[in-house]
Design a protein that fits this description.
The protein contains no helices and eleven strands. It is an all-beta fold and about 130 residues long. The protein is globular. It starts with a strand and ends with a strand.
Length: about 130
Amino acid sequence: QVQLVESGGGLVQPGGSLRLSCVASGFSLDYYAIGWFRQAPGKEREGVACTSSHDGNSVYVDSVKGRFTISRDNAKNTAYLQMNNLTPEDTAVYYCAAEGYYNCPNYVSPYRFASWGQGTQVTVSS
């Protein structure tokens, strides 16, 4: 059974940091692109970061460039999203997603990803 499980969300003050984890089971991440998405109340799901399955490329939405870093540890079948210098505008439910044999384009659409986790809440507030 293909499953993705996110963790690491929580409440953090502006300027703080969080590291989200996404553990895959039932399949190997070796040949999968990993995307991190977020959805705030009343807003559409937004692609935040993506790391490709084959070309070694990672892309970020402009609003998080320089603050967020996506990474993966294929040996642990786990992907990460390191989030630094968080702002209240980063508050959302964060989801990881996986898509096989996929190199991330500049704009990452959620419709391109087939497998999803359940999400983890990130709240940035003082």
